[in-house]
Amino acid sequence: MSEDQSLTFFSRCLRSRSFMVGGLMTAFLLVCAAISLFWTPGSAYDITITNRFLPPSAAHWLGTDQFGRDIASMLMTGTQNSIVVAVVAVSIGLSIGVSLGLLAAAKRGWTEEIIMRLSDFSFAFPAILSAIMLTAILGPGGVNSILAIGLYNIPVFARLTRGTANSIWTREFVMAARASGKGRFRITFEHVLPNILSIIIVQATILFAIAILAEAALSYLGLGTQPPEPSWGRMLNEAQTLMFLDPMQAVYPGLAIAIAVFGLNLLGDGLRDVLDPRLSRKR
């Protein structure tokens, strides 16, 4: 990327309100997760019954829960778990799904038909229901929830990649590459993949938000991250019996989930406008 192209790219980033707001919200979560690796305002694990239901103070920024654990520390540590689950799950779907989509577009015929029919079959089951089924079979835990969410992401990336790659295969520069004697797989990596990479990045950002929401849902049901590791979904589950006693215990993790999902959706929307300016001009 030349200097002029870099300046144009960054100027588009600064003009996109969705990108800026979503980027700031996402950066806030990443900073919280990074800081919690070596410091939290209190302990997210120690149970101190004498400190239960303490109000917000200098020692406990958001107060304590029914077990005396520091809520702010639990939220910060829970950010780590949500990000790790989302990153690994989306990476599984991205690596396998994009590879299958590129293979389907390059080979066509029965290869494409088999890959797409398997994708259609997986879409017959709702995402959360599929994740619940897999974690119920394999057992609860963070690793199994990553696997369940990652498996759902594979057909999403496969269908997107195959559809966008097929449109690139009809372009003149690809036909010229084929006429020059280049093989299908060389064309795929030299010409097709670079031209669909921006679409894949945007989709990965959106699925990152969905993965965080799915992890919270699984943890809420007791199938995701297990104690004593903090999780936003399990914090919501534990707070549902305390709604009349201390409703803020449900508000804090709910707000964290909302910020994460809303911020990543805005970031994905902004990236779409930044990477493809034609879309923003059509609005």
Given helix and strand content, the structural type is mainly alpha
Helix content: over 70%
Order of helices and strands: HHHHHHHHHHH
Strand content: under 5%
Class, according to the CATH hierarchy?
Mainly Alpha
CATH architecture: Orthogonal Bundle
Shape: elongated
Largest pleated sheet? none
Which stretches are low in confidence, meaning pLDDT under 50 for 5 or more residues running?
A: 279-283
Supply the number of helical segments: 11
Question: Could you give the count of β-strands?
Answer: 0
CATH topology: MetI-like fold
Mean pLDDT score, rounded? 87
CATH superfamily: MetI-like
Radius of gyration: 22 Å
The tally of domains stands at: 1
- How far is it from the N-terminal to the C-terminal residue, by CA? 27 Å
Description:
- 75% of the residues lie in helices and 0% in strands.
- The chain has one domain (77-281): MetI-like (MetI-like fold, Orthogonal Bundle), CATH 1.10.3720.10.
- By secondary structure, the chain is mostly helical.
- The model is unreliable at 279-283 (pLDDT under 50).
